[in-house]
Amino acid sequence: MKAHEYQAKEIFSRYGIPVEQHVLCSTPDEAVTAFRQLGVNKVAIKAQVLTGGRGKAGGVKLADSETLVRQHAQEILNITIKGFPVTRILISEAVDIAAEYYTSFTIDRNARSVVLIMSAAGGMDIEEVARKTPEKIIHCNIDPLIGLPKYLAQRFAFTLFKQAEQAKRMTTILQDLYKAFIENDASLAEINPLVLTAKGTLRAIDAKMVFDDNALYRHPDVQALFEPTPEEQLEATAKERGFSYVRMDGDIGCMVNGAGLAMTTMDMIKLYGGSPANFLDIGGSSNPVKVIEAMKILLNDSKVKAVFINIFGGITRCDDVAIGLIQAFDQLQTDIPVIVRLTGTNENIGRKLLKDSNRFQVAETMNEATLMAVKSVKGETL
Ligand code: GDP
Ligand code: MN
């Protein structure tokens, strides 16, 4: 789970990491009020979206008058960054930047430990730095049994800062950031840029935190920060209903029993030149209630032009599945083409029932079914 900058900054503040005071706004009027309220000469206006690269996309601007604050706030609230429309902006005191550094803690799976990543070449081009001049990025693995005691933090801090006073400040920031990372079961705690100000102090002017979803149950306060996009909301609803659902870009809705078969179904669709709209594992059984629930999730996605139901009747009998599907589609109001491939116990009976209902396109093999689904969305006749 990702947190917004303003949320990550609240966590940073709690751990003593220096961040500017800030106000979250959703209109230009609010931004102007915030500017007055902060009572500073210059503010940074920043889009709050769950993606990086806001600066380069025009989502970060500085302003030193009410007119400019209003103008920039309006501009930023009108843009969409990497598919995320900007609905809120953060107004914070602008910092005089002497140098930009990069600092983060994340998981190094190969080393089976947390890794501290630092660079003196921080800022908006950090990806480029990593690609072209990887020697400018410092990696320090953290022994989980030792953690980050002061002597270690100090040693790491001195690799980036030569002046004692700055290294001392960095030592504290490293320890605080590590604590925030560990205590919240984060998978990333990143400051980019960590800024050396004209006055010689260090400030986190950007903040990013990503949390381990599997550990969220231990952190209700973190969980409360979750602001799902409509898509994530749909995935969460599916999860509550016992489905495993991941939305994709394509137009063929998939309903499959079993994760492996669901993956294979998506691969097959791709192989035949189509594009799956989702991954959906409805689990072992396929009773009508489940099918209806699953179909509702699929139909919620306006991109879905056909549904491919791929069922392996291992324990479940195919005639039961067919009866379930027929009952379900009696209740569903949709004329979307539905392609069904059933295999397993009593498959012949199941297929006959489906064919006789005249509601489904019925296939015997996975090849045949996939081809039907792909042709159906392309508007080709079979
Ligand atoms: P990102 O592009 O999404 O990572 O957004 P950041 O918050 O990191 O901002 C991008 C860039 O805008 C930073 O690297 C800074 O160069 C600049 N910036 C952000 N806030 C300030 C500020 O308060 N003062 C100044 N001078 N520059 C800022
Ligand atoms: Mn940044």
TrEMBL record:
<dbReference type="InterPro" id="IPR013815">
    <property type="entry name" value="ATP_grasp_subdomain_1"/>
</dbReference>
<comment type="function">
    <text>Succinyl-CoA synthetase functions in the citric acid cycle (TCA), coupling the hydrolysis of succinyl-CoA to the synthesis of either ATP or GTP and thus represents the only step of substrate-level phosphorylation in the TCA. The beta subunit provides nucleotide specificity of the enzyme and binds the substrate succinate, while the binding sites for coenzyme A and phosphate are found in the alpha subunit.</text>
</comment>
<feature type="binding site">
    <location>
        <position position="100"/>
    </location>
    <ligand>
        <name>ATP</name>
    </ligand>
</feature>
<dbReference type="GO" id="GO:0004775">
    <property type="term" value="F:succinate-CoA ligase (ADP-forming) activity"/>
</dbReference>
<dbReference type="GO" id="GO:0006104">
    <property type="term" value="P:succinyl-CoA metabolic process"/>
</dbReference>
<comment type="pathway">
    <text>Carbohydrate metabolism; tricarboxylic acid cycle; succinate from succinyl-CoA (ligase route): step 1/1.</text>
</comment>
<dbReference type="InterPro" id="IPR017866">
    <property type="entry name" value="Succ-CoA_synthase_bsu_CS"/>
</dbReference>
<feature type="binding site">
    <location>
        <begin position="53"/>
        <end position="55"/>
    </location>
    <ligand>
        <name>ATP</name>
    </ligand>
</feature>
<dbReference type="InterPro" id="IPR005809">
    <property type="entry name" value="Succ_CoA_ligase-like_bsu"/>
</dbReference>
<dbReference type="Pfam" id="PF08442">
    <property type="entry name" value="ATP-grasp_2"/>
</dbReference>
<feature type="binding site">
    <location>
        <position position="95"/>
    </location>
    <ligand>
        <name>ATP</name>
    </ligand>
</feature>
<comment type="similarity">
    <text>Belongs to the succinate/malate CoA ligase beta subunit family.</text>
</comment>
<dbReference type="InterPro" id="IPR011761">
    <property type="entry name" value="ATP-grasp"/>
</dbReference>
<dbReference type="InterPro" id="IPR005811">
    <property type="entry name" value="SUCC_ACL_C"/>
</dbReference>
<keyword id="KW-0460">Magnesium</keyword>
<feature type="binding site">
    <location>
        <position position="192"/>
    </location>
    <ligand>
        <name>Mg(2+)</name>
    </ligand>
</feature>
<feature type="binding site">
    <location>
        <position position="46"/>
    </location>
    <ligand>
        <name>ATP</name>
    </ligand>
</feature>
<feature type="binding site">
    <location>
        <begin position="314"/>
        <end position="316"/>
    </location>
    <ligand>
        <name>substrate</name>
    </ligand>
</feature>
<keyword id="KW-0479">Metal-binding</keyword>
<dbReference type="Pfam" id="PF00549">
    <property type="entry name" value="Ligase_CoA"/>
</dbReference>
<dbReference type="GO" id="GO:0004776">
    <property type="term" value="F:succinate-CoA ligase (GDP-forming) activity"/>
</dbReference>
<keyword id="KW-0816">Tricarboxylic acid cycle</keyword>
<keyword id="KW-0067">ATP-binding</keyword>
<dbReference type="GO" id="GO:0042709">
    <property type="term" value="C:succinate-CoA ligase complex"/>
</dbReference>
<protein>
    <recommendedName>
        <fullName>Succinate--CoA ligase [ADP-forming] subunit beta</fullName>
        <ecNumber>6.2.1.5</ecNumber>
    </recommendedName>
</protein>
<feature type="domain" description="ATP-grasp">
    <location>
        <begin position="9"/>
        <end position="224"/>
    </location>
</feature>
<feature type="binding site">
    <location>
        <position position="206"/>
    </location>
    <ligand>
        <name>Mg(2+)</name>
    </ligand>
</feature>
<dbReference type="GO" id="GO:0005524">
    <property type="term" value="F:ATP binding"/>
</dbReference>
<dbReference type="InterPro" id="IPR013650">
    <property type="entry name" value="ATP-grasp_succ-CoA_synth-type"/>
</dbReference>
<dbReference type="GO" id="GO:0000287">
    <property type="term" value="F:magnesium ion binding"/>
</dbReference>
<dbReference type="GO" id="GO:0006099">
    <property type="term" value="P:tricarboxylic acid cycle"/>
</dbReference>
<dbReference type="GO" id="GO:0005829">
    <property type="term" value="C:cytosol"/>
</dbReference>
<feature type="binding site">
    <location>
        <position position="257"/>
    </location>
    <ligand>
        <name>substrate</name>
    </ligand>
</feature>
<dbReference type="InterPro" id="IPR016102">
    <property type="entry name" value="Succinyl-CoA_synth-like"/>
</dbReference>
<keyword id="KW-0436">Ligase</keyword>
<keyword id="KW-0547">Nucleotide-binding</keyword>
<comment type="subunit">
    <text>Heterotetramer of two alpha and two beta subunits.</text>
</comment>
